[in-house]
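Look at one record.

>
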Amino acid sequence: MSSVVDPTTEHDVPRSAADGPQLRTILLTDLVESTALVEQLGDGPAAELFREHDRLVVELQQQWRGRLIDRSDGLLLLFERAIDGLGFALDYNRGLLAIGASRKVTLQARTGLHVGEVLSWRNSDVAVSLGAKPLEVEGLAKPFAARLMTLARPGQILLSAVAEPLAHRAARELGERGEQLLWKSYGRWCFKGIPEAQEIYEVGEAGIAPLRAPKSTAKSWRDIPFWRRPAALGAELLLVAGLATGTWFLTRPQPAIAFGERDWVVVGDLRNLTGDKLLDDSLQQAFRISLEQSRFVNVLSDLKSRDTLALMQRKPGTALDRAIASEIALRDGARAVILPTVSEVGGRVRVSAEVIDPHTQTTVYAESADGTGAASTLDSIDTVTAALRGKLGEALESVEKTSEPLPQVATNNLDALRAYALGQRAYFKGDYADAAALYQRATSQDQQFAMAWLGQGRALYAQLGMTAASSPLRRAQALRNRLPPREAMYLDGWAAELEAPATALEKWRLMAKLYPDSVPANVNTAIRLMKTGYWKDELPFAERGTAPQSELIGFSFDLLGRGLMALGDTDKAAYAFDRAVAGGFRDSQERRAEIAAIRRKFSAARRLLEPLSKTEPDTHLEQMTFAVDEAQWQDAQHAAASALQFIGADGRYALAARFAQASVDGLAGDVALARQRNAAVASASLRNLAANETAADADEAIGVALSSALLGLQWGDREQAQQVLSSIEGNQHAQTPRLSELATVVRAEMLRLDGQSQEAIKLLMPLLTGNESYQTHRVLMEAYATAGETAAAVKQAEWLQGHRGLAYAETIGYHCRQSWNVATNTLAWLRGAELLTKLDEKAEARKMLAGFDLRWPPERLPDYLRARREAVLAASRAGGV
């Protein structure tokens, strides 16, 4: 009696006991041009190749639990599950490429995979001895799988509509590779001998699978509606030919994804299929560096991607695969996802990348390049990114103009590149010490790695200030020709901050013009405009930094809020600071407190500062300012002492705190102590200036020194002011617009005190551009008053009263003048009242004095201010109104 066998077991079952056909996965393969291969290699080498092929088949058959039914130029296998058949097919294609590469030939197979009912039985021993196969398989599933196999292109795996969903759902069982498989549908096809049209699919790996629709044959053809068939199309084409010709001249073909200039892409995590862990971080970073050279394509920063990942409530370190990267792209407004892969195919290292439509997660384009050994990967990356840029619509001329080879603009040392990549990761996490150490490791492995020197400078600046950053930044400057164009411009901005701050704004603005979506370019331009006092000009650059794709969105909202606060729009400023805090920029909590104080809600302001008081040094200076704003003099002096204790004598903000302390002492009425402390601040500032070789630190030292000179002039300290002016004369660091203005204001105040008020006014008037500093108007008010132009002086007092936001927002000398500015804002009400009495406008004087009393109640005033107030009150009542 003949028997039937379950192909997954070795036990014979009598045929009469069989339950009928069994549902199985059937896989058919065919080696492409195997006969020509024998002729090319010769009999001996070809025989060895086929022996190695057979060893591969046996190994994979055991690994994927398959049952080999037939073998000649192709294979017929049965599997229990579709995913096992797919796993075999994927590994088989990889194995063929490796076997062929070792012999410098191309070895590929066509593959068809289907799930259906089959009937199998075991031939008798006699039949087998006469040449029959041990196991026979029949059923409609077999010829259908054969049709798929015949239709497939070389290296292509085609699946039926039955097999595809079964394999797709189980793809994660293949591990990371399964998550990155490419799946494509080619619609419905007709097969000879099969009554109904069938939908077919392709599945494969980037760089290996053709990912192209198969060609129709005599036995298989696309199921096309009648109206799209050649006979019908001929007539239709005649009708539309004229329209098509005209339209061609009016339109140009668009890429398959609607990508435009300056659109954004998300770069997913590199899939490393080589097993070499060194390539994980190094090639991911290299791919970014190469792609970011484009001025056409904007690459979402890794920091922004990770921030969005956190908003998605995903764990840190979650891989940016096809699905996750697509979700990030949709959330952040990116047009496409790019998934890079490095794999080993036939003994060669292949770098490939797919462009993914995030809406459908389908592959739109794929590019690959092969090389020998890991060292070839950098050249391959350049080839692939250049091709992708062209596919996305960038002009070839632009690609060639803006692309420099990775070994030239980065490094050819993969260890150094990996250290740099880890440094970038640490920097964006805020671990500046770790970042600096990793960048240093990168430069120790390649002394010519300019980007690592630049990174080291940024990390040291964030941690310790410009003096610490100067050495690596200068090393980067010496290697400027080894930077990509954008990073070279970025370095130019830092170099200007370091050596020629008067030109820094020009450098940052130029970079922002050429790279309008560069967040660092826009943010640094906004910072420099803010320091210069160009608040209106600062707003558009800060706004650009608040784009959804910005990695510095919180900081950019903070800059936007500071500009709005300086311009007096507290409602919009408050909203911007709320967005900044929500975006993770913790310092904006201080600015929220300032908005509350500007609105004179001091209890709320202090509550907002409370969570920061133990960690942030400048919160103590804020507390001091709030106390001054309420005329709580003892509280202000106590806060000044606390600030100095917290900051330390040599802290970054020590000079600012000591200046603020001196101004508070003077306001409280202790002029002798205030003069002593202010003189010490001026001397310390000049010593710091002499010791500092970096512009950024010198900039702040000069700002504090000039502020001390101006404050001292209120008490007649002309010698101190002259010493400061002499010390900074000719110093290039004093040539920035804001410091140059401040020096002019000091000279004007000296002229006024010398009785030359009209000369002082002439000196000050050109400064009134709409961007002038707060104290410029105070000195101009006093110059007008001394010159007898009282009405003009009152106008200046009213200006000071109306710019309370600017009093809080100014940044000169580490924000040292905030408390003085805020006091000036209130004193302008008293000064205005004094001036109005001279104009005999007594009712207006009393109204202005009431405004002063509202801000600083009489019972809180020190003696000298109480005396001034009483004199104004008496003068405004004289004669009765």
Summary: The chain has 41 helices and 17 strands.
